[in-house]
Amino acid sequence: MLIYLILIFSIYFIFLLVCIAGWRKFLRQPRPKADMSIEFVSVVVAVRNEELFISTLLTSLRVQDFPLEGFEVIIVDDHSTDRSHQIISEWITQNPRIQCSIISSGGHGKKCALTDGIQNTKGEIILTTDADCVLPADWISRMVMSFHHNTSMVIGLVKIHQNEHFFSKLQAIEFNSVMGSGIALHTLGFAVMCNGASLAFRKKSFEAVQGYQDNLHIPSGDDEFLMRKLLKRFPDSIQSIQWPSIVATMPQPSLKSFIHQRLRWAGKWKANDSFETKVLALFILTFQISIILAFGLPFTDFQVLFASLLLVKFLLEGYFLFNVSRSLRQNFSVSAFLILQLTYPFYVIIIGILAQLIDYEWKGRVKSSIG
User: Fold this and answer.
1) Contact 245, 136 (CB under 8 A)
2) pTM listed for this prediction
3) Strand, coil or helix: 176
4) How many Å is the Cα radius of gyration of the chain?
5) DSSP class of residue 158?
6) pLDDT tens, per residue, the chain with 371 residues
7) What 3-state class would DSSP assign to 72?
């Protein structure tokens, strides 16, 4: 058991060091001038029951520093049952200078809504974000500037907005670990994740791989499945944003909604055909299980070694997440980080088990009813 613990912790430490190196490389990469002229841009947003947040998103689109004549906004209402459609329609009337329109989705689910929106765009570059996001004023311009002549997709930066509730700080740090490791690994040549809250791709590339076809039945993964299809068709065409512009998405208000969101995200792993991503996910799960099992063994036999390994883990994770949080212009909550150190192994295992056993509810739909 001692040899196993040393081995699996050593592999994990190497992974953390790789992430630290990748993140530093991402921050220090040169910002070359884009070798493309400004193309017309279409921002597509799928909306379902977002009456609380959609006005904030629309306002952040209105104040973009990108020329107003250079972009349009297509809002696709995915059968909302609240006032979302009404709020959007009123906003469009009140802001005639913005090229914004709203259409109704002909199908069910986010991928169908996005597909309908993209089919109605006139832009050569498609940007996607979520209805509960706040966009920085330079978001469109920075995403577009990151394109080059051979770029099919640009991966943006996303963080979870921290409010006065401690639960939002927990979510922010947990999400920063995903965003930070994903961007770091992509910078080093391993594309493992992206986030639809800040994503851009060429319309012709989307059409070349037939968009979300073949995975429309999977509720989540519109971002990552598309990224993998583009990688297969256009190798080395995925680019991380080169001029950081950070999109903020809202935290989940309750533990129940948080769990259901994570179950929705976990649902895509069964259909994930990326060998690297599956190996990474399996290793992280194995590592977290190993930590819990190690606490159940006679502690006196290896207490100094195990405590030392946990200390190194604490220091490396803390260093990495502190730097990611600072780069994303976010406060690093030490107390939230400490709580996650204690709870994260159980969280990973519980979500993994629940994802195989129960259905989840998301915005008034259960898993089996999302097309």
Assistant:
1) yes
2) 0.90
3) helix
4) 21
5) E
6) 778 889 999 999 999 999 999 999 999 987 756 555 678 999 999 999 999 999 999 999 999 999 999 999 999 999 999 999 999 999 999 999 999 999 999 998 899 999 999 999 999 999 999 999 999 999 999 999 999 889 999 999 999 999 999 999 999 999 999 999 999 999 999 988 999 999 999 999 999 999 998 877 676 778 999 999 999 999 999 999 988 899 999 999 999 999 988 888 876 666 666 777 788 888 999 999 999 988 877 666 677 888 899 999 999 999 999 999 999 999 999 999 999 999 999 999 998 888 777 777 777 777 643 33
7) strand
Place of tokens 């017309």: 40
Pick from 121, 154, 120, 114: nearest CA to 40: 121
Taking each helix axis as running N to C, give the angle between helix 303-327 and helix 166-187, from 0 to 180 degrees, rounded to the nearest 10.
Answer: 90
Instruction: Assess contact for 57 and 134: CB atoms under 8 A.
Output: yes
CATH architecture of 36-128: Alpha-Beta Complex (3.90)
Distance CA 295, CA 293 (A): 5
Residue 59's contacts (CB-CB under 8 Å, 6 or more residues apart) are none
Q: In DSSP terms, which residues pair with 361 in a beta bridge?
A: 366
Nearest residue to 73 via CA among 96, 51, 107, 50 = 96
* 325-360 burial: b if 16+ Cβ within 10 Å, else e: bebbebebbeebbeebeeebbebbeeebeebeeeeb
AA letter at 318: G
Distance of CA 338 to the CA centre of its chain: 23
User: Which residues sit opposite 160 in a β-bridge?
Assistant: 249
Asked whether 124 and 204 are in contact (CB, 8 A), the reply is yes
Domain ranges in the chain?
1-34+146-195+206-366, 36-128
